Amino acid sequence: MAYVNQYSASGAPSWWLGKTTADRTPQAQYNMIANALIPFMSPEDRAAVANNLYRSNQADFAEYGNIATPKASYQVTTPERDYYTSADRARQATETLNRLRTSTGATVTDLGPGFAYLQRVVDLLNKYGGDPNEGTAPPIPGRRTELVRDPVTGALTTVNIDPNPYPAGNYVAPGPRRQTRQEYVQMMGELDPLLAEGKSEALAPYEPLVQKMIQPFFSGGKITPVSKDATGNWVFGERRKEWY
Length: 244
What we know:
Layout: E1 4-7, E2 18-20, H1 26-37, H2 43-56, H3 78-84, H4 87-104, H5 113-127, E3 145-149, E4 156-160, E5 171-172, H6 181-197, H7 207-214, E6 226-228, E7 234-236
Antiparallel strand pairs: 1-2, 3-4, 4-5, 6-7
Helix pairs in contact: 1-4, 4-5, 5-6, 5-7
């Protein structure tokens, strides 16, 4: 059955199309779900998934036939790290999956086991994600501060409560509330049983999509530079070859 462009997604690349089909075969279910998540992947992952969709179904994904893989970044930028570890990204992905479902008139069951599985994964990314629109810049050492919400704008700011104000005034410019190390460890702990569940025959095709949502690929570096040591503990920070 033919695919049609039926819905939109926040932040999608200009070439992306919200494709749906009335076909309910496992392959069609996978194609629709993979396509719905493209906007929330790294640029390199986006190109890889789009090219795979084209190779598996050239007739219905003909528009994806010339998607070039972006040139490698030399490093992951702070705005990229903030976005890809944010609850906003997860909420947008959830909204897009729901748009896919409602645009087809399908139930969660109609879209196969992978749909509910990805929803559960994205829910955990939302639960433990940072918020790029809320938070504070680090307070200046030695100054006592408190967090205050502006009654007009609703923005959170760090206010100096020492008798002497900062030279530039009482307010420190607000910044994003980034995902903490503790949140990352908690998230991975709750994801572990889901990742194990994803090894089943029905869910195995979706495992690469899960990995692209958890740890988007950037050839210039990791979004969250972290690894496990020999004892199974998380170690944060980049490892350099010259250290070994």
